[in-house]
Amino acid sequence: MSQPNPSQPNQFSLLKQRRFAPFFWTQFLGAFNDNLFKTALIVVITFDALSWTTLAPSLVTNLIPGLFILPYVLFSATAGQLADKFDKAGLTRCVKWLEVAIMLVAGIGWMTHHLWLLVAAVVGMGIHSTLFGPVKYAYLPQHLKKEELIGGNGVTEMGTFVGILAGEILGAVLVVMQPHGLYFEAGATIFVAVVGLLASYRIPASPAPAPELKVSWNFVGESVRNLRFSSKNRVVFQSMLGNSWFWFYGAVLLAQLPVYSKDYLHGDHGAFVMLLTVFSLGVGSGSLLCERLSGAKVEIGLVPFGSIGLTIFGADLYFASNAFAVSGAALAGTSADVMTLLAQPGIWRILFDFLMIGMFGGFFIVPLFALIQLRADPAHISRTIAGMNILNALFMVAAAGMAIVLLGQGLTIPQLFLVTALLNALVAIYIFSLVPEFLMRFLAWLLIHTVHRVHTVNAERIPAEGAAVLVCNHVSYVDALVIGAIAPRPIRFVMDHRIFKTPFLGWIFRTARAIPIAPAKEDPWLMEKAYIDIAQALHEGEIVCIFPEGQLTRDGEINPFKGGIAKIIERSQVPVIPMALRGLWTHLLSRNKENIFGRAFHAGLRSKLALAVGQPVSPQDVTPDGLRADVAALRGDWK
Fold this sequence. Notes:
64% of the residues lie in helices and 6% in strands.
């Protein structure tokens, strides 16, 4: 297995360099201040509503996130144009000056007890975040090397997550500190805005990529153009919709937490902070686990896994809340602190549900976002991201609207949680029916993470882009599933046409767009069509995998390779990559004639497999015998 380069610096070393550190702290402080302000406002509306407004707290706590997101709907397309036209360092400073002005207005609102000044500041911070979003995603490629981008993005997202969580916790704590909580909150937000402004003046110059660009102020037309362009790539657009659905789900859930903490858990503001912290830790841990569960590649099989968890634990939150209403009835009419709540047996189930919703949300969202980055046209990725931001904003505004309407019609907050969980199941079924690749990858992922332990050797030799032919030994009926689950991108397998008639496997391989083939003596037309389909797939830059033996091995040895590979390469001059599967000869779905129970016992509950990938062979050097020798050498003695 390939080893990491020990000379490559740790990604956190970027925090010591001026090309990255000032930008990092500027965006970190912006995320921190957003949540320091919004959370404090939601807390005072929830726990001190009568001194601020006559409106129902549930109405205001759903309205505030909706107003914050509204500028994303209106101005995302324009903000993207501004980021291309002007120097990003200068634009960032303008945005930070705007933040200082907004926080001064908010400070007046805190001091005068004027709710609508604070609501106006919420809208202002939404505009601030909308303007900074495109700058944030476009700055890093200008200042980091290609090999530093993954690490730089990782540190940036980590900083954003920590900033959001810290801001939410401090905002909820500061504003209720008597008797000067409002003063502390006003002073803290202004101070953080000023520090962020100072940090922005250390950001190095970032020349505009398109200074001659004429900005269109028709935000409606620009937004429509962005979405229309994104919709041309079906997988990317469906992934964008899935991404936006997660923000819908999260917006519904998070907007209810203050009132839920007070009216259903009978807790003080500390209960709200506790739920927020548990949910945020779930999202963070799920996001970090994604890399381990996916083998450090974009594994979209985790998306259905995440969706299942969102439905199961979202629905269980409804039942857990009803159970707590019985077990925690003695707390009714009180304002219990965290320790009192933790002494109630029913609270642990609720906390577990929030943790799992956050964790499975991480499994759902991280692969989707990575897939969008990977599959989008590199020349138009900024437009794609802008389109996704617009969709996210629309879905979050819709979430606020749905919550306001349903709660206004008499639904309880636990019932709203249940409705959202059931909607999640319907949306998942719809998306996965449109793009079955998600579900197919999920089944393959389950196979190699539950039944088997798969070790890869030089898997990075499978190209991340461009056409190539993979050749491999053929040992069992699950060979293609194992290879497909390990590969970093979709593979077009060439398979015997009879397997497509198998009820379950046939559906999987049709979903994966496998190419059926038949022997010439059996169906010459289908055989010729297979070669045409292979040539077309390679012409379009796809990867094709064939099993040149033409049949499963009956003795565990590698059969002679047939001449079809030479015919393929004669038509399409692409590299051929030899591979070898190890450990599948004892699989229950191989043609091994040994006792099936003995094989199962010998292999164990989680049998070990390996996929070894060899060096690419140039088209002019391809011969069936030469490739068979390469595959045999890769396999070695381990069948």
